[in-house]
Design brief:
The chain is mostly helical. It has three helices and two strands; from the N terminus they run αββαα. The chain has one domain.
């Protein structure tokens, strides 16, 4: 039977079927070592793991000791909030750019028509 560690690595490697042939990258998150295989290069995987570890440690300072699952859930919610805020800001910016592009096209069209 696979260990929880093997299961975690397998779960990450199934995100992209091609990542199954990728090399394993060893990372430490919240004091526990994981071997992760993914479609990112090892430096990116390590950077992602550092980010998760940092968020878990921030949360861990605020909750009861030993509640690793609670820390993980709260860290996941905080990371999801980061992603949500980033996506919302990106969508807002894309809308602004689209509107600015439309305004610029209208202005250019009017300028060209006034010269003709």
């Amino acid at each position: 039977m696979p260990s929880k560690r093997d299961t975690a690595a397998a779960a990450l490697s199934t995100l992209d079927p091609e990542s199954r042939s990728a090399p394993m990258t060893s990372v430490e998150i919240f004091g526990r070592r994981y071997n992760i295989r993914g479609d990112h290069d090892p430096d990116t995987i390590r950077a992602l793991a550092r980010y998760v570890d940092r968020r878990m440690r921030q949360i861990g300072e605020q909750v009861a000791p030993g509640d690793v699952v609670g820390v993980a859930v709260l860290a996941a919610l905080n990371i999801a909030d980061d992603v949500y805020k980033t996506r919302t800001a990106l969508e807002r910016r894309e809308t602004e750019i689209t509107e600015q592009t439309r305004d610029l096209a209208r202005t250019l069209t009017e300028a060209i028509e006034s010269v003709e």
